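Appendix B, record 7
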Amino acid sequence: MTPEEIIYLVVGCMVFVALIAVIIVVIVNKKKLTKNATDKVVIKDGVRYTKDQNVVKDNGNMNITHNVGDVLLAPGKKYTATKTGKLQPGKYTVLSADGTAEKFNIRVSGFVREFEHNSKIVIAEGDAITAVSHTIILR
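Structure tokens (predicted):
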């Protein structure tokens, strides 16, 4: 082999290795983005399961964000939990949507109950839920 052929071969191998490294980095980053979006909500057999997320900032104020899988309940509108609907059976964290109301009322299956920001609620198949006093987020 001539010195020119050796240089071309070495440069070609380096370009090939760099291309493989770029492809691996892109695949890993894509998996991380997809994993972060799907880790928030897991649906098994039509039942919704979530992992808790930080809903209170370090200074003690409410951390109000709308994430993938959150359900926004408007006041006075009735939602029914179904396995294929917008609101699915499962355990939820109840959050104030406006960030100022620390306590609010929710009607679950005909009974009104007061909830606090960051409370837990379990909604079964067929349960009807209505935000009574404020707009709320179910996470």
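Remarks on this record: The helical segments are 3-39. DSSP finds one helix and ten strands in the chain.
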